């Protein structure tokens, strides 16, 4: 079974989670991305958030939130994505990087707009009272 290894940043305000939509895509994703060879979770998080949102993650503030797994969106049946989620502080104002078309603040009413693994994360945040 193939697994896609991703690391993501959970950043929410006022009951809504920051999500991104890539150029040419309709689905929104939690910011982050695939680990490169030899990278730690935090190194992946720092690199991906710089590329996608133009922010500088403070590595020492990164805290593991949880690990979620589901069918990978848009991939063959049986291809799973493992999403290791962190919270962290960062400097800078999130703005769309080169591959990002749009940023959006989504609450649980936006579930039809996110990937299967993100649906699990949204449900967990809502259950904990962190998401509307």
TrEMBL record:
InterPro entries (alphabetical): NUDIX_hydrolase-like_dom_sf, NUDIX_hydrolase_CS, NUDIX_hydrolase_dom
Record Gene3D superfamilies: Nucleoside Triphosphate Pyrophosphohydrolase
UniProt entry keywords in alphabetical sequence: Hydrolase, Magnesium, Metal-binding
Database matches in PROSITE patterns: NUDIX (PS51462), NUDIX_BOX (PS00893)
Pfam families noted in UniProt: NUDIX
Domain Nudix hydrolase, residue spans: 1-130
PANTHER family: 7,8-DIHYDRO-8-OXOGUANINE TRIPHOSPHATASE (PTHR43758), OXIDIZED PURINE NUCLEOSIDE TRIPHOSPHATE HYDROLASE (PTHR43758:SF2)
Membership in a protein family: Belongs to the Nudix hydrolase family.
Name assigned to this protein: NUDIX domain-containing protein
Organism: Neglectibacter timonensis
């Amino acid at each position: 079974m193939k697994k896609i290894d991703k690391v993501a940043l959970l950043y929410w305000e006022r009951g809504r989670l920051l999500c991104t939509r890539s150029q040419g895509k309709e689905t929104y994703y939690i910011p982050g991305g695939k680990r490169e060879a030899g990278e730690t979770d935090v190194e992946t998080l720092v690199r991906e958030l710089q590329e996608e949102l133009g922010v500088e993650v403070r590595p020492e503030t990164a805290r593991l939130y949880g690990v979620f797994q589901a069918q990978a969106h848009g991939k063959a049946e049986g291809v799973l994505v493992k999403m290791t989620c962190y919270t962290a502080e960062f400097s800078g104002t999130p703005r769309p990087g080169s591959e990002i078309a749009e940023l959006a603040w989504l609450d649980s009413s936006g579930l039809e707009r996110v990937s299967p693994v993100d649906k699990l994360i949204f449900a967990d945040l809502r259950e904990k009272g962190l998401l509307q």
